[in-house]
């Protein structure tokens, strides 16, 4: 397919993930219109050579594919069906790719509501972080109709290194993502507990990092997040509040299923405590700082 024949894409939500995804799509030769509640984010995208729109409806008017990269279900619903929403202007055969992490039941409801209007909905949560988003190397956990996949595939190929096709209806992608988030949240909380406990023991935490990353106790989250603690750098790559939200969704899902999740419940309390201590918008490795504050332990960058 020549670049002139590529579908027009709108990316709604130009945060750290959405901006990288929009950039990857442009690099792949798509015409991309960006839209964000932050005028500065939209202006930056335009300055980088993209197109800009003030509302989801405006961004979606010329789009064959709309990629929604917002925080939660409520924002996704507002983008679709709120005032100035994409559903007002989406072409009948356009596809809406929803990348927000949400309860699978809500993903099913939004898909049903949009599909009733004749449009396609792809439930497509993402994993990989801002750097992989910018490189077009995300993992995308997608489910939806064959028609939704067919319509979305050119954009998915540009954004993902790994695309998992997880079912023919919305909700499956969301459910897979929640299992990932359960593990991610527990692993960050455990890694934070371990590094702070090591500091309390008077250990050289840089040496602890070196030893653990070469040992059986390592996790992807320990290896990825604990350098933030070593550097005392809590600028948010992924904020504490994300896991307050996601582990909260897991508690709701588990309660409804009458399924016990005590380990993720404990992790949720650690994120809640960190948020309550004023670090909700900081990097999720701030759970280690919370441990340090409570126990009078010295970590790099803490008083």
TrEMBL record:
Q: Which Pfam families match?
A: NAD_binding_11 (PF14833), NAD_binding_2 (PF03446)
In alphabetical order, the GO MF annotations are:
NAD binding; NADP binding; oxidoreductase activity, acting on the CH-OH group of donors, NAD or NADP as acceptor
Q: Does the keyword NAD apply?
A: yes
- Active site per UniProt: 177
Keyword Oxidoreductase attributed: yes
Q: What is its EC number?
A: 1.1.1.411
Q: Which residues form a coiled coil?
A: none
Q: Which UniProt keywords apply?
A: Carbohydrate metabolism, NAD, NADP, Oxidoreductase
Q: Which reaction does it catalyse?
A: L-threonate + NAD(+) = 2-dehydro-L-erythronate + NADH + H(+)
Please report the stretch or stretches of sequence annotated as the 3-hydroxyisobutyrate dehydrogenase-like NAD-binding domain.
Answer: 171-291
Q: Where is the 6-phosphogluconate dehydrogenase NADP-binding domain?
A: 9-166
Which InterPro entries does this entry report, sorted A to Z? 3-OH-isobutyrate_DH-rel_CS (IPR002204), 6-PGluconate_DH-like_C_sf (IPR008927), 6PGD_dom2 (IPR013328), 6PGDH_NADP-bd (IPR006115), HIBADH-like_NADP-bd (IPR029154), HIBADH-related (IPR015815), LtnD (IPR050006), NAD(P)-bd_dom_sf (IPR036291)
What are the GO BP annotations of this UniProt entry?
organic acid catabolic process
UniProt lists the family membership as follows: Belongs to the HIBADH-related family. L-threonate dehydrogenase subfamily.
What's this chain's function? Catalyzes oxidation of L-threonate to 2-oxo-tetronate. Can use either NAD(+) or NADP(+) as cosubstrate, with a preference for NAD(+).
Q: Protein name, please?
A: L-threonate dehydrogenase
């Amino acid at each position: 397919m020549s670049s002139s024949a590529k579908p027009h894409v709108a990316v709604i939500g130009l945060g750290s993930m959405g901006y990288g995804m929009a950039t990857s799509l442009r690099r792949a030769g798509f015409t991309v219109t960006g839209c964000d509640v932050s005028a500065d984010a939209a202006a930056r995208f335009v300055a980088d050579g993209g197109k800009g729109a003030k509302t989801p409806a405006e961004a979606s008017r010329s789009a064959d594919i709309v990629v929604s990269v917002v925080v939660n279900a409520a924002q996704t619903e507002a983008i679709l069906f709120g005032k100035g929403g994409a559903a007002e202007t989406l072409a009948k055969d356009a596809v809406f790719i929803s990348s927000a992490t949400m309860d699978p039941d809500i993903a099913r409801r939004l898909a049903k509501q949009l599909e009733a209007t004749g449009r396609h909905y792809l439930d497509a949560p993402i994993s990989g972080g801002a750097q992989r988003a910018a490189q077009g190397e995300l993992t995308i956990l997608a489910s939806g109709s064959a028609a939704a996949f067919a319509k979305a595939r050119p954009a998915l190929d540009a954004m993902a290194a790994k695309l998992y096709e997880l079912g023919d209806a919305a909700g499956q992608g969301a459910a897979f993502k929640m299992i990932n988030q359960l593990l991610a949240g527990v692993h960050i909380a455990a890694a934070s507990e371990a590094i702070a406990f090591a500091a309390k023991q008077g250990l050289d935490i840089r040496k602890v990092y070196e030893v653990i990353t070469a040992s059986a106790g390592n996790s992807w989250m320990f290896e990825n997040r604990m350098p933030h603690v070593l550097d005392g750098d809590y600028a948010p790559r992924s904020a504490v509040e994300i896991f307050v939200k996601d582990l909260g969704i897991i508690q709701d899902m588990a309660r409804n299923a009458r399924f016990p999740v005590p380990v993720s419940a404990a992790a949720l309390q650690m994120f809640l405590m960190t948020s309550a201590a004023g670090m909700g918008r900081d990097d999720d490795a701030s759970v280690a700082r919370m441990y340090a504050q409570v126990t009078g332990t010295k970590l790099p960058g803490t008083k």
